Amino acid sequence: MSEPVIELRNISKTYGANTVLHNVGLQVESGEFLTLLGPSGCGKTTILRLLAGFEKADRGEIYIGGQDMRVLPPEARHVNTVFQSYALFPHLTVFENVAFGPRLKGVRGGALREQVADVLRMVKLEEFAQRKPGQLSGGQQQRVAIARAVINQPRVLLLDEPLSALDYKLRKAMQIELKQLQRRLGITFIFVTHDQEEALSMSDRVAVMNAGRIEQLGTPRQIYETPDNLFVARFVGEINTLQGQVIAVAPPRYDIRLHDRVFNLKSQYAFAVGDPVSVLVRPEDLRIWREHEGSDEERAHLFPAAVEEVVYKGSMVDLIIRLDQGDLLSTTQFFNEDDAAIMNLDFRVGERVFVDWVHDWEVILPHED
Amino acid sequence: MRIREPFKLIAIGALWFWLIAFALLPNLLVAVASVLTRGDNEFVVFTLTLSSYRRLLDPLYLDVLLDSLWLAAATTALCLLLGYPFAYLLTRSPVRWRPLLLLLVIVPFWTSSLVRTYAIMIVLKTQGLLNQTLLGLGLIAEPLELLYTESAVILGMLYTLLPFMILPLYAALEKLDPRLIEAARDLGAGKITIFLRIVIPLTLPGIIAGSLLTFLPGLGMFYVADLLGGAKTLLVGNLIRDQFLSARDWPFGAAASVLLTLLMGLLLWAYYLSARRANRGLP
Asked: Which of A135, A164, A269, B93 has its CA 20 to 30 A from that of B113?
């Protein structure tokens, strides 16, 4: 691996009595699309502001391109930010906004016009150069903010929830555009969001943050399929939790009792007999059996349940079901042309069903209170 | 909606009555007086003439106008120089202190500005507070001639008008989004560039409003020049007052007054145009 373009070592930051970052360490490779994902107040924006230079860490070091950032003010860093509210200069035209950075570097005349025109073409705003930001739509302002940042060819582009103000459709489109832009420019992107779907669909790696700590750092797939702890499992996508107990050990397989049934399941963790565990299953990995489906032998491994809520979503149906033992589970059933039985998804509220899951798709974690 | 109709009618009616009775009519009277003739026994004789305006073209009165413009401009410039940093520091001070600091700016309004001008006299006069202190400290050997100078007039006007500059500047600076300054720093701008290219242009409406609020009253303010300047320089304000009260030449005083009003109206119109241009394109 090459030298990381960004390195945070043991970063701590407090505001008064409030500690927003606890000993955070992070390395980002050059050209990587890294997302900081977490609920509001988890410290993700603080990391961004530390990288941009707007905040100073109480402890720890920050290196960008191998250079110690502690003494470097924002204006001297090879880092640019796309702000959440865009922070476009309202009194300047789109052209002047984008030209702001290059002008400060002494670019003038034809060279300046060419640079600005190139970047505006890239974000498809070449006809809007003479408009003021107030005359643009939200999506267009967003593009100006990106153009104003990337024209400086930063080593790292910091994006602070840049899509949160856009409507759903535009956000989807901008996600793809941003990803394409990042590939084309080869700039390292640090992207902050609280939207897990956005994080999963755009990033090379995701750092899931909570209460000033990085809970897990990994590819979107690792984060979603093998969460390290309950927080990550619950924050990234929806997940069902069943409480169980280990009754027999044969690593990596364990016999785990869930209610009155015993399952032989695999886990990366080492458990001892008697340990309480959480068995996590994604809604789409739960299988619903209707009353007439399955043999008695199969039913021995199924949980009886009742449908509490049916939410039709077009390509799928979400069901909220309650096990007879009391647990409330959420499932997603997809319409499937290959399976005539499941294709018919007209579940009724109160209908009796049976539930299990696609084995080996579950995640077993030590019990947390 | 229907229940509120009578109230609306009364409110608008009262407003119109006020504007007509206390703004339009007096100004109309002044405008009419300016084209009448001075009488020997009455204040005005109903003979239409433009002679008052012709008299205003006399270079003597041009000097009066220029002196007034200069004094008002100098006061405005000083107010801006002092008021801008003050307003800026006000927006940077802790939020819980701001109401108190703003109150301190406004407190002098609670006393008549005439009384406050007399207070300045007490400070500045030869045996005044300032000279006594400086003498006592041994910084000067003999009292300074402070009172009855142009500097004293400017000081007095500055003191009276400074709040009118600070308040609009504070409002403009308060509205300035700190994220814009962060964005400029992020793009590589230093403090001076940020001030010149971001802060000044975005607070320009406040600068213009504050300048008008000090410049326009500064043009007409006569008692400050009388008290602190020893009535040595004749200003437009003094001229108008003298015509009405001492010289008893109402048409001439009215003509000077109309001219001053027109000049102020012109400035306000220019402000309106510039504000409209500045607002265009803002979100």
From this structure: B93
Report the DSSP pairing between strands A33-37 and A188-193: parallel
* CATH number for the domain harbouring residue B223: 1.10.3720.10
Return d(Cα A244, Cα A280) in angstroms, integer.
10
User: Residue B44 domain-assigned?
Assistant: no
Q: What is the mean pLDDT of chain B?
A: 88
Q: Which residues of A20-58 are buried (b: 16+ CB within 10 A; e: fewer)?
A: bbeebebbbebebbbbbbbeeebbbbbbbbbbbbbbebe
Q: How many helices (H) and strands (E) does chain B have?
A: 14, 2
Euclidean distance between CA atoms B95 and B16, whole angstroms: 39
Residues in contact with B107: Cβ distance below 8 Å, sequence separation at least 6, in sequence order: none
Find, in chain A, the residue whose alpha carbon is nearest to that of B177. Answer: A87
Task: Tell me what the mean pLDDT of segment B180-197 comes to.
Answer: 94
Q: Structural domain tally of chain B?
A: 1
> Which chain B positions have a beta carbon within 8 Å of A83's beta carbon?
179, 182-183
Q: Per residue in A245-255, pLDDT tens?
A: 999 988 888 99
A chain contacts of residue B185, beta-carbon cutoff 8 Å: 53-54, 73-75
Residue B8 in any domain: the answer is no
Model pLDDT for residues A266-279, shown as the tens digit of each residue: 888 888 898 999 99
Does residue B206 form part of some domain?
A: yes
A152: chain B residues, CB-CB within 8 Å = 187-188
pLDDT greater than 50 at residue B283: no
Residues 6+ apart with CB under 8 A from B209: B168, B172, B271
Compute the average pLDDT of residues B225-254: 86
- Pick from B183, B189, B198: CB nearest A104: B189
Angstroms from A114 CA to nearest CA on chain B: 19
Confirm whether B123 is domain-assigned. Answer: yes
- Best of A55, A69, A95, A104 to mutate (most B CBs within 10 Å, chain B): A104
Whether the CB-CB separation of A332 and A318 falls below 8 Å is answered with yes
pTM for this predicted structure: 0.81
Chain A residue nearest residue B179, CA to CA: A87
* Domains of chain A, each with CATH number or no CATH: 6-234 (3.40.50.300), 240-366 (2.40.50.140)
Domain that holds residue B239: 57-279
* pLDDT above 70 (res A112): yes
Query: Which residues of chain A form beta strands (DSSP E)?
Result: 6-15, 18-28, 33-37, 59-64, 67-68, 79-82, 156-160, 188-193, 205-210, 213-218, 240-250, 253-258, 261-266, 276-281, 286-290, 303-312, 316-323, 328-334, 352-357, 363-366
Tokens 């600068």 locate to B207
What average pLDDT does the segment B81-94 reach? 93
pLDDT for the residue B146: 82
Predicted pLDDT at A59: 93
Task: Label residue B281 by pLDDT band (50, 70, 90).
Answer: very low
Residue A339 has pLDDT above 60, yes or no: no
